[in-house]
Every structure is written in structure tokens, then in C-alpha cells.
Design brief:
2 copies of one chain form a homodimer. By secondary structure, the first copy, chain A, is α/β, with parallel strands linked by helices. Chain A has 17 helices and 30 strands. Chain A has 4 domains: about 170 residues, FAD/NAD(P)-binding domain (3-Layer(bba) Sandwich); about 120 residues, FAD/NAD(P)-binding domain, CATH 3.50.50.60; about 110 residues, FAD/NAD(P)-binding domain; about 90 residues, Oxidized Rhodanese, domain 1 (3-Layer(aba) Sandwich), CATH 3.40.250. The interface between A and B is large, with 98 and 97 residues.
Chain lengths: ~575, ~575
């Protein structure tokens, strides 16, 4: 190693600059260079949908740092407009090409950092994707192009292909700009990779209420254009949808060509393989951000989880390690949060489906309630689906949806799951309580206690999806609503199996119910429904359970019978 | 034990009803009775300041359950207006008196639950405390009496005695009603038992800005009244303050007389002693809520921490245990959150002072920043003070203040501390990120990393309190502000030691600073100040540190020099 350590970083967006800045703070004398093929560095790309939608007024707000800042403040050289084309590992040199001039040169390194990011998926077989008016949204330049198109062509109809995070954020942005928006998704749900259906259905309801047309369970076949080569139609397996502007939001694939060409190990996920220190298979080459695969902290499996938050954490660890330090990254929980119009939607850890697939014996609770004291102004409902391992009682994951504060509960679960907390641990967390901020029992306490009650054999429930299925099949069971008449009149499930006996009348009405009836109780949030289950069992009923989450979590139509 | 288990609960507010309801769900056949001396049960007493202030329109919102509800729904007998006067432990009988009639009777029990709550401290030596217009605020009846006084007498001047939680909440409520409000506190800070001065000073600034007059470091000597026996003045050691209405908010003491008379063990804190199962020294008598002492999860010491949230958790555990189950309570973290006008203020675990006193070698970070992406509409600043153990790197506590979301970070720390997390654990939590909800790095990540940098010997800082002290003493050091000229003009520290060299000019200006200077760097949030510290050290400076939290966390006056 020479006197002055030479560190070369490929990629100037999130992980790269963070690694370089951290390296500088650890080693005041290192020679540090960032190579970036674009004209800018450190874009706040997660903010792009809000720039397109107008909540963020200027793209300047998303330019977090300039090359000049890096030079003046951190003495870091930034080579923009420069592409890394080959790693000469034996020589410890990075071959780069200045894009404008085509001039090639070699940058010697002691440690190389690959932060090459990810590229939007663009199916090679998708005809018409090169038409004018078809965009992706990953860079400020993309957003500027979309905004230019909006002001130039004043399009009426937008189609977003893909109902993942960027897809839904793009849909909201275009709706905010006054367009008719359709979303097409090959799978049968929105956010299909992130949520169980009990939660994603609520996001679908919100999208529909906000005027977004959903075309689910249908693959896009082709995009059709007009005589000016401008997109005019999105053709799916089932529909032909008018489109003046199209956003392709089909996910990302990690940029690993440079690494692959250099013989570095690529993981089974398609991401660059790294160890806990974020070293690639070449110990002098580190990698982080969207181009690498991560370890899931619950399953131990490798996953792709491209997030700006993870990229920043990677950057710090790499900056430490390339300057002689020793730091490790423990992995991710796949934490995701997204605003879907007025709904907040989040998940952490494993969904129920993922937990099943990973071999856990799962137990779940769906628990709705207010995000602060119910009587405090501004209190909003949220619904939490908590997933735990029935054997170890360890919390495996959580999903939440609602107009209220889901971010807080998500992050509490992040900490709890990361530190191997059980539902018992969660149920006794001394969470901050005061009416403007929470109820005396947080919803996570309630959800954890429901799971403990289930594990103890006291609480029994079934999913609203299964109840809906039973109703649709015309099965013989009693769907016993134990709310008040007023609540029933405001909104109830319109099914022949459904009947109302308010909880305070249930003891005296018990004799009207046949002892061998299959009974599913429900109320507003399941608190009374669970009480009804216990009461009926105490009276000798054998087949009673409550519907998870009751009316608030019910994602299907309800009927209003009040005047 | 007879066929039908007999459970008697003393106290109908939070823990008692929760224990009874939980017992019912665990045992459908038990005979369960709640004894309550007041006329109501299940008051949401934490909401009282907001009812007084007008945010909660009706006291009905704070009446969570009625005796009739307990009877109809849970088959629980509620005896209101009934005082428990003696426990006959050998006979397993509770002696009660119906207050209205004076009739005494005995309730046999298999398990007895004491949830007798706490009573506001009312110093026996305080003259004038019986005057009209002097109130405490713990029950709906208190709030109704205050509101009646406000509408009857239209008082102008309110004095709140005690600057703890209820004191500050009462001050805000009365200010919302248009009164001139003064707060008197014997100690020299607001929230003195909860916060270190770096945080409480911000709450004081907010109170002053909102027009609340603070009289700190002065004990109240007496209350003086007029010829109608109505309070007119609060006399302290130093001042005489006009008062048409007085709220005494001097804390609570646990109601343990019944237990003490029965020979049950009382802890050194004055609270009823219980084990992890919430059993008293009599295994057939359980106790929970504000009348018991709790175990602090960090220190293992016994503390009084009367909170509705804790009372509810106690209730569930007791309900389980009195019906043959086995559940334990792991203790508390002293978590507290309070709205102080437009500021949110919270703490969890140990303050720096408490950590010192408990014998930890502490290391702290004071980290300000935005509560979501800085460019996202509505982003607000908060300041976090994180406290860790330098030896184990375990997180010991956190305090936070600001207009932004402090509740989320508090609760993440609750989970992290409860599960013995280190600063390394916190720095890598996969917290939910999307611009409407957070920045790519949460402030907790930043604070944890600052502490890691300090433990690693890279970051060095001093408290703003110490900087202020040095300025006041006229010490010879350079207070080096590395922000931009514009930022300086907007607000800077007016001290002869303070000078401006923007960070991007610092490298070239290094030669103007004497190498042996004592330098304290500062910026807006300490990010640039830390970079400046590292840069100057790289240039050979030996005595450089940054000011914790920089300008945002600086709790003293600043000067504006822009036009």
C-alpha cells in the first residue's frame, strides 16, 4: 500500500458518494475519486414522483450535492460523464472512458468500490416501448422529460405499467397533474410482491376511490403508437387502454455487467454477491447499494432490496472498510413504506405468504384501531397485520395500512424483529403514551396480544378473505355482527349469513342461537368480536371464531341502511 | 378454591377494569367484582388537559366504559360509590363501605387485585391550598370544576404550580382558554425529572414564545386569597404572582394505605412492592397501575412511573394470573411524551445525568435534522439526544424535542433498549424510508453513528451548555462557524470567540488559524461541523471538537444580521 491510499468509487448516486465521504472522514489523506457516467451526482431519486406530482417544486431540491461540493469540502475528485468499462483486477486499475470525447484512461486503485445501482426493467420483447411518450422514472432527467411532455402535449390519459412502489407513486403523481390514470399489473393485486391480499385490497380500494382505473391480472402485450410515433394505446391480454403517456414501472435489475466481466461472483438473485463487510469475491473490491444482493435478517436468504436507505448504510460501512476499519452490515428486513394517495401503506419482515414459504408455522393478527387516543382531534384508523412464528413466538413481520401513522409502528417492528423480539416482548414495550400521540395501548400491543391469545388457544379467528369466500360459496354459517344497531345501519356486510345481536344483548339472546352453529363473530375492530367468541364458548358453543379485523379491515363492499 | 373463582378488584380506573375484563376472557365463569369509590369507572384521565383546553369537546369522550357495559358485556359487577376499607387476609375478605349509606359489608375473594391508583401531591404545609379557585387535575370532576370556574368567574391570571407533565399540559390548556399563564417550579428547569438541560431549555423557549411566564428555581411559600376566600396570589421565595385560578401539579403519590394497613410490603419508592407476576407479598393479592412501583429495565432499580399505558399492561397480566395463567411484566423504561404547545417532547430510558448516576460511562450525541425528506412538504426539525454506554455500546436512553415526529423515534428506541440493542444495532435498522415519511438516513441512524464515531475516537464534541459557559467566562477559544454567509446572516451566535469560515473555504483558509488554537466548530446540524473537525485534524490541528447539535440545538439567543 502506498503512502496515500487510492480509493476509486464507481457510481455517484447514493452509496458511492456516501462511501467516498465516509472514507474521507476516516482517512484525511486518501486519494479518492468518484466515477459517474451521468452529469450529476447525489440525486434524491426517491423524491422524483413528488417532483412530477408537484409537491416538490424544483428539481434543485433533489440535487443533494454537487461535484464541486465534494471537491471543496471533502477533497474528493468527481469525474462526471465518465463510464467505467473494465476492471483490471491484477493491475488494480479501473478503465474508464470519458463519454463526450471517447478518451480512455486507467485509474489505479488500492480499493475499488462498485456502486453501480440498478436499471429499470424494460422487457426486450415489449413492442412499442421505444415510442415517444413512454418513460421510466429513475433520474431527474426522466422526471424533467415527463414534465416537459405534460406541458408540451397536455396528455389526457396516462397508463402506468406495473403496480409496485414506483408504479403507484407515479399514478398518484399523474393524477395530481389532472390526468386520467390507469394502472396495469400482470399479477392480480397491487403491490403484489410486498403485501398479503388483506392489506393490498385496501390500497386498491383507495386507488379506485381516487379515480385510478386498475387493470389487474393482465400482462401488457404491446404499446401502440400514432403516425407521429407517439404512444396512443396500451394493449394487454384483455384490454386496449388509451394512453397519451406511459410510465413503465416494472422494477429494477442490478447493474452488474462491469463486475461480471471482471469475474466477480454474482448471486443467485442476479445481484452482486458480497460478504458482511460488503466485500465482493475480490477482497480489494467492495460493493453496495442497488447493485448488490442483501441478506434477509429473518430468513437468512439472499434478496434484492434496492432502497436509498440501504444504499446509504452500505456506503458508510464501505467507507469504513476501505480505509482500514472493520464494520459489517447485518442485512435487511425488506422494509417498505409508500403513500398511496391518502393511505399510508407499509410492510416489514415477512408477509404471511412469505413466512409460510420459508417454512414457519405462522400465526397472524389483523388489528385495526386509532393511531392516537380515539378522542384526540385528528385521530385516524390504521390496520395492522402482524405475523409471528407459533413455535418460538418470534415476530416475523408486519403489514399496515390506513390514513393514520403507520410509519411509527413499522419502525417499532423493524427494531423488534431485528433484535429477535417475540410477541411477548412487543406486548410489553413501554411505548410513548399521551393522547396526542397514542392510545394507552398501542395497536402493536393489541396485535401482539391477539397473537398470544391465539397461541394460548383462547382466540380463534379467520381471515376476511375466507369469510368472503364462504359467503360467495353460500356456505351455512352465522356471521354474527355484535355491534350496535346504529353501527349496523351505517355499514354492514350484506349477506344472508349475517345477523345482528349487539354484544350487550348477546348473553340474553344466546338461547336463540343453535349450539352446534358455526359462528363467525365480527364487530368494528374485533375487540368485541373476540369477547363474543369467549362469551359464546363459555356458554357451550363449540365452533366459534371471530373475523380478523372485523368491519374496519373488511376490504369488500358494505351496505348502508341508515337514512 | 370453589367451583366459581371469586375475584375482587379495588379501583375502577385503568388497571382494575382491564384486569377484570381480561380475567373474564380467561375465565367465563369467575365471579368478578370491581369496587370503585367514585361514581364512574374507566375515565380517560390522560385526556383531561385536552378537555380543559377545548380540543376534546365533551367529557363523554373520556368516559370509556360504564358500569352497565361491564355488567351486560362481561358479567362483571361494578360497585361504584363504594370504598374498600380493610383487607382481611386470613379470611380472604375485603371489607367495603357504601359511601352514601355508610353500610359496611365483606366481599369474599379467592384473588384480590389492588388498583388503587395515585393521588396528587398536596403539601400539607402549603397555606392557602384550600382556597376557592385552587384545583388539581386528575379526574373528570376536576376538569368540570375548572371549566365551571372559567365560565363562572372568567379568571384572567392562572398560575400552575409544578412544571412536570400535568403542569405543562395544564398551562397549555389554560393558555388555549385565553388566560395569562404562569408556571412556578421549585427546580431550575421545566420537566426537570425527565430531561437533561439541553432538551428542556428548548421546551422553556417554546413556553416563553407562547406567552407562558416561567418562574423557575423558586418554591411556592403560600397561596393568598381575597375576602371571599378565593385565591388571588401565589407567593414564592422570590415573587408574588397574581392568580385568579391555580392548578397544583406537584406529582402523585401512590395510594397504598389499604395495602399498608393489611401488612403488605411497601417498596422504598413508596409504591406497593410486587414481583414480576405483579403479586404483592401476599400471593393471593395482586396489584398494578399507579399504586405499585416498577422495575426500570436499564438499571434494574425500582421507580414510580404512573402511566395509563403501564396500568393497562399490568391489568392484562393480572387478569391472566388471577385466573390461573402465568404472565410476567418486564418493567418500564420511564418513557414519556408530552406536547408542549407546538413542540413535541419525549424521553425514554436514562438521561445523561441518570446514566452517570447509575454508574455508566456515558457517551452522547445531540443530532438535529428533519423528520422526513428535507424537500418533502411539511418536513419539520427535531433534535435527538442519544445516550449510550461507552463500554458495551448499549443504548441507554434518548430524549427528543421539536415540531416534527419525535414519537416514532422514541418508540424505536423503546424497542431497541428493551431488547438490549447497541448503537451499532440502531445504526443499521432497516427503518421505513420514503420521502413523505423519512429521510434515507433516519436521525436515529445519524445519532447512533455519531456515538460510534465518538467511541472510535474519530468524533469529538462538547455540549452547547459548555460552549455557553466558556463564552460567558470569556475563555480564549475559536468558535468556528462553517456555514454559509447567508446562514450566518440569518442567525449566528453573537460572541467574540465566534467567527465564520464556510466549510467550502476552510481548506484554503486553514493557514489563517493558529495550529495550537482551541477550536470548536459548529454548523447547522453538526454534519459539516464534524467534517470540519476531521479536516482540521487532518491538517494537524490538535484541539478541535464540534458543538453537539450546532445552531439548531443551541438553546440560547442568536443574532440576525440580515436585512
Amino acid at each position: 500500500m502506498p503512502d496515500q491510499r487510492r480509493i476509486v468509487v464507481v457510481g455517484g448516486m447514493a452509496c458511492g458518494p456516501k462511501a467516498a465521504a465516509r472514507a474521507r472522514r476516516c482517512d484525511p489523506h486518501a486519494h479518492i475519486t468518484i466515477v459517474e457516467q451521468g452529469a450529476t451526482v447525489s440525486e434524491g431519486s426517491c423524491g422524483l414522483p413528488y417532483y412530477v406530482g408537484g409537491q416538490v417544486a424544483s428539481n434543485k431540491a433533489l440535487l443533494i450535492r454537487t461535484p464541486r461540493y465534494f471537491k471543496e469540502v471533502s477533497n474528493i475528485e468527481v469525474l462526471t460523464g465518465t463510464r467505467a468499462v473494465a476492471i483490471h483486477r491484477t493491475a488494480h486499475e479501473l478503465e474508464v472512458v470519458e463519454i463526450a470525447s471517447g478518451a480512455a484512461s486507467r485509474l489505479p486503485y488500492d480499493k475499488l468500490v462498485l456502486a453501480t445501482g440498478a436499471t429499470p426493467v424494460s422487457p426486450p420483447q415489449l413492442a412499442g416501448k421505444e415510442l415517444d411518450g413512454v418513460f421510466t422514472l429513475t433520474k431527474i432527467a426522466d422526471a424533467d422529460a415527463i414534465l416537459k411532455e405534460l406541458s408540451r402535449a397536455a396528455p389526457c390519459n396516462a397508463v402506468v405499467v406495473g403496480a409496485g412502489l414506483i408504479g403507484l407513486e407515479s399514478a398518484e403523481a399523474l393524477r395530481a397533474r389532472g390526468l386520467n390514470v390507469s394502472v396495469v399489473e400482470a399479477l392480480d393485486r397491487v403491490l403484489p410482491a410486498l403485501l398479503d391480499a388483506e392489506i393490498s385490497l385496501h390500497a386498491e380500494n383507495e386507488l379506485s376511490e381516487q379515480g385510478v382505473a386498475l387493470f389487474l391480472g393482465q400482462r401488457v402485450i404491446r404499446l401502440e403508437g400514432d403516425e407521429h410515433n407517439h404512444v396512443r394505446r396500451v394493449v394487454t391480454e384483455k384490454e386496449s387502454i388509451e394512453a397519451d403517456i406511459v410510465i413503465l414501472a416494472l422494477g429494477y435489475h442490478p447493474n452488474v455487467e462491469l463486475a461480471r466481466d471482471a469475474g466477480l461472483e454474482i448471486g443467485s438473485t442476479g445481484g452482486l454477491a458480497v460478504n458482511e463487510r460488503l466485500q465482493t469475491s475480490d477482497p480489494d473490491i467492495y460493493a453496495g447499494g442497488d447493485c448488490v444482493e442483501n441478506t434477509h435478517r429473518v430468513t437468512g436468504q439472499k434478496i434484492l432490496a434496492p432502497m436509498g436507505s440501504t444504499a446509504n448504510k452500505h456506503g458508510r460501512i464501505i467507507g469504513t472498510n476501505v480505509t482500514g476499519g472493520d464494520d459489517t452490515f447485518p442485512g435487511v428486513l425488506g422494509t417498505t413504506i409508500v403513500k398511496v394517495f391518502d393511505l399510508n401503506v407499509a410492510r416489514v419482515g415477512l408477509t404471511e405468504r412469505e413466512a409460510h414459504e420459508a417454512g414457519f408455522k405462522t400465526v397472524v393478527a389483523i388489528t385495526p384501531g386509532y393511531d392516537r387516543a380515539s378522542y384526540y382531534p385528528g385521530a385516524q384508523m390504521i390496520t395492522i397485520k402482524l405475523v409471528a412464528d407459533a413455535e418460538t413466538e418470534r415476530v416475523l413481520g408486519g403489514q399496515m395500512v390506513g390514513k393514520g401513522d403507520v410509519a411509527k409502528r413499522t419502525d417499532v417492528l423493524v427494531a423488534s424483529i431485528s433484535l429477535n423480539g417475540t410477541v411477548g416482548d412487543v406486548s410489553n414495550l413501554d411505548l410513548a403514551y399521551s393522547p396526542p400521540f397514542n392510545g394507552a395501548m398501542d395497536l402493536l400491543h393489541n396485535a401482539a396480544n391477539v397473537i398470544r391469545n391465539k397461541i394460548a388457544g383462547q382466540a380463534r379467528s379467520i381471515s376476511p378473505l375466507e369469510v368472503n369466500d364462504r359467503i360467495c360459496k353460500g356456505e351455512d354459517f352465522v356471521l354474527l355482527d355484535v355491534r350496535s344497531q346504529q353501527e349496523w345501519d351505517d355499514a354492514h356486510i350484506d349477506a344472508c349469513q349475517c345477523q345482528l345481536i349487539p354484544l350487550n344483548k348477546l348473553r340474553e339472546a344466546v338461547s336463540t342461537l343453535p349450539k352446534d352453529a358455526r359462528i363467525v363473530t365480527l364487530c368494528r375492530t374485533s375487540v368485541r368480536a373476540y369477547q363474543a367468541q369467549r362469551m359464546l364458548e363459555g356458554e357451550g358453543f363449540k365452533d366459534v371464531c371471530f373475523m380478523d379485523g372485523s368491519i374496519v379491515a373488511w376490504p369488500y363492499a358494505v351496505t348502508c341502511s341508515s337514512k
